[in-house]
Amino acid sequence: PVRLHDGPPARPEETAKQVAAAFEEAYGLQPAGVWRAPGRVNLIGEHTDYNDGLVLPMALPWGVSLALAPTDDGVVEARSAQRPGEPVRFAPAGLDARAPSVTGWAAYVAGVFWALREEGHLADDALGARILLDSDLPVGAALSSSAALECAVLLALVDALGLSGLAADQRAMVRLAQSAENRFVGAPTGILDQSASLRCKEGHALFLDCRSEGARNVPLPLEEAGLRLLIIDTRVEHKHTESGYGDRREECERAARALGVPALRDVEDLAGALQRLDDPVLRRRVQHVVTEIHRVNAVVGLLRAGRTAEIGAVFNGSHLSLRDQFEVSCPELDVAVDTAARKGARGARMTGGGFGGSAIALVAEDRLEAVCAGVAAAFAERRWKAPDFRVAVPAAGARRVDW
Ligand code: GAF
């Protein structure tokens, strides 16, 4: 039998207690608190966020837990349980986005300090911090480990420093975390991941309009419908800083300019728009974005009507569109999706940016074992790395965790 990844995730309170103890041991002082920000899967609405479109993510029970204490020595020292013996130090007042001196995982930490200073929230040059973090999210699996890290740092600072204006404004928090990623780390992402990490609710998906930033928490009663949401991590690492993601974004912007609309969200007559574009590549990109936005509305409609199992068919359509029109899938994602469907999943699709990472499959409880076994066998036949399986439930957004 195929074993699911490590069983259920650790209880956040248990993790918080361990992270606080590790913090005290590393720094010899008490943290001001422990905060936790989750990763996400996007149920539908892929590559629509930077086209001002609609998305429907849910937060995962896996995430980044982080202990923090502010200091007045002007230095941030950060440690990660995943990189023992590698503390990173930087002075927030000396950070420069044009000449980044902090790289790797710590760039996401530094990016948040940089963005807070840039927006005028951290004027004091003497402000520093001690940070210790622990993550149970795989890196490069398209489950949003970077946004979870940014959001954990941001929420911890907002809370520990009493930045009440920001604390009361989730949209501003999202934009700040996005600016850390876009302008400091250099990955041109939209607002999907940070919104999911900060704004999701337990038991719900987040129906987000990326233009107005208005959002609703939509109930997602998977278990009640006898369904499981399976995450298949292909273990092909994806990165947003590499060219594919930026190229797609640029193609969408070019198509919107050619069509004379502010964003592809504004294309009303798809057939007419396709006729007006000469470039077949741009036609494919537009076809995906416009139909994907319709698919988000379709899934929300089905959920509201209590027809939960039927969202699987819409997942299948989304995957084909991402594979053939937007061209961001890869052989491992295609095999995971096709095999899941053949073994009885109600639907499956790649999730996140693509070019590797994870697929999601909606599976009836009694087909779970067969789907996992089928996908594992299909990967083994091709001599690919064994995929990693997790069953996800819609979890809470970022919060302080007391124990
Ligand atoms: C990545 C990005 F970070 C998101 O902003 C979004 O564009 C997604 O890819 C594709 O839907 O996760």
TrEMBL record:
Record bears the keyword Nucleotide-binding: yes
Basic and acidic residues: compositionally biased ranges: 2-14
GO molecular function list: ATP binding; galactokinase activity; metal ion binding
Occurrences of domain GHMP kinase N-terminal (ranges): 108-198
Source taxon at top rank: Bacteria
Gene3D superfamilies in the cross-refs: 3.30.230.10, GHMP kinase, C-terminal domain
GO cellular component term, pick one: cytosol
Pfam families linked: GalKase_gal_bdg (PF10509), GHMP_kinases_C (PF08544), GHMP_kinases_N (PF00288)
InterPro entries in the cross-refs: Galactokinase (IPR000705), Galactokinase_CS (IPR019741), GalKase_N (IPR019539), GHMP_kinase_C_dom (IPR013750), GHMP_kinase_C_sf (IPR036554), GHMP_kinase_N_dom (IPR006204), Mevalonate/galactokinase (IPR006206), Ribosomal_Su5_D2-typ_SF (IPR020568)
EC code: 2.7.1.6
Domain (GHMP kinase C-terminal): residue spans on this chain: 302-379
UniProt entry keywords in alphabetical sequence: ATP-binding, Carbohydrate metabolism, Cytoplasm, Galactose metabolism, Kinase, Magnesium, Metal-binding, Nucleotide-binding, Transferase
Cited PROSITE patterns: GALACTOKINASE
Annotated Galactokinase N-terminal domain residues: 22-70
GO BP term, example: galactose metabolic process
Entry-linked SUPFAM superfamilies: GHMP Kinase, C-terminal domain (SSF55060), Ribosomal protein S5 domain 2-like (SSF54211)
Top enzyme class: transferase
Protein family per UniProt: Belongs to the GHMP kinase family. GalK subfamily.
Name of the protein this chain belongs to: Galactokinase
